[in-house]
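User: Hey, quick favor. My workstation is busy. Could you predict this chain's structure for me?
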Amino acid sequence: MHHRPPPKCHPERRHYAKGQCQSCYNRAYYPHRALLVSQQYHALTPAQKADRISAVKIKSLMRWYGLTLDQYHAMFEAQGERCAICREVLNIAAAARAVHVDHDHATKRVRAILCSGCNRGLGSFLENPSAMRAAADYIEHHRAAV
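Assistant: No problem, here it is.
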């Protein structure tokens, strides 16, 4: 597999095209689009911005997980408004991007709502329970050695 070097504009980001990250590429090659979207968005009132985000959330829930907004909220409340793994209190209104619907990638079945850290952790271990148990054993072993 060919590995692309990091973009020159923002080395910490992923390469998109022509040696640039996606936002710099879009700004350079589609300036009218970026300006128009930015002007339209910034002209909205806070209530209109919240409505737009909510509309996008509703469409995404249905498209990706087959969930209605009511089902999503019911699931969130059933979990005590906490991450299903670490039990951290979640705020779906204030941090929509920090709250994730976890699902089984093989069956597409929705499991629970997670915080970003727990969602990334599952993904990092490729949802492999043996690897997660081994990591927990590793941490406990080295904690005991100190």
